[in-house]
Design a protein that fits this description.
Blueprint lengths: L1 H17 L9 E7 L6 H10 L5 E5 L7 H8 L3 E6 L10 H19 L5 E2 L17 H11 L3 E2 L4 E2 L10 H8 L5 E7 L5 H16 L3 E2 L16
Parallel strand pairs: 1-2, 1-7, 1-8, 2-3, 4-5, 6-7
Helix pairs in contact: 6-7
Length: about 230
């Protein structure tokens, strides 16, 4: 009995050392916008300013007259990532054609921000299957090669579904963008046709603020949302 009494304090100390401690759950949300900039980008930036929220923009060179908004977004503290110079899926013909396209959009980013970006989002995401029409296994190859070159590629774990068709209803975008995952990376678009995405953005921000989420950019996190590679 005396031995048991002596062991009890020791057992208690061990349990305190090795028992997991559960603190507050990490709740972070990453707003990401693909395919811009366009005439909708300044409206997106204004809303982000109103709510003091930062986002990540994966940019293209499709709209030359709006490229200055890359600089504007960067100077406002948003993260800039490389999406594609052309956004044509033919860039998946080979590693050479992909990296040629990536190099071209990197030049635009450097012209606008003074630096290149290490953030990438593949057109269609790393899980896209359309790349099979151009080269078998190309996405698996590129996923490895971009990281060897010092890049990080990002997919998403929540889609706003604003790209399902030309115009998606505001209510559907809001509903699709809501999640209770601890870390939420939302795919949205700021192209010319996505006016309802702009309209939905305040409600999406309000939802995550009300649920205690911190808004972060992908340039300032260790969180990488990868999907299953299908080619």
């Amino acid at each position: 009995m005396n031995k048991i009494k002596l062991l009890l304090p020791l057992m208690l100390m061990i349990s305190l050392v090795y028992s997991p401690v559960y603190g507050d759950e990490v709740k972070e949300v990453y707003l990401t916008f693909d395919d811009g900039p366009s005439q909708n980008t300044p409206a997106v930036l204004n809303i982000l300013d109103q709510y003091n929220v930062k986002a990540t923009f994966f940019v293209t060179a499709e709209n030359y007259e709006y490229q200055n908004y890359i600089r504007t977004a960067y100077l406002k503290g948003h993260a800039i990532g490389a999406h594609s110079f052309t956004h044509k899926y033919s860039i998946y013909q080979s590693q050479e054609t992909y990296f040629e396209d990536l190099g071209n959009i990197e030049k635009i980013i450097k012209e606008q921000t003074g630096r290149t970006s290490r953030l990438i989002r593949f057109p269609g995401g790393s899980s896209n299957t359309i790349s099979r029409h151009y080269a078998q296994g190309i996405m698996g190859q590129l996923a490895q090669e971009v990281e060897k070159k010092g890049y990080k590629y990002y997919d998403w774990n929540v889609s706003s579904n604003d790209a399902l068709k030309r115009v998606v209803s505001t209510s559907r975008i809001i509903a699709s963008s809501k999640s209770r995952q601890p870390r939420v990376c939302i795919l949205m678009h700021d192209t010319a046709t996505k006016t309802t995405t702009v309209q939905a953005l305040p409600a999406i921000i309000q939802y995550y603020q009300a649920n205690g989420y911190t808004f972060k950019t992908l340039a300032h996190t260790d969180f990488v949302s990868h999907q299953r590679i299908n080619n």
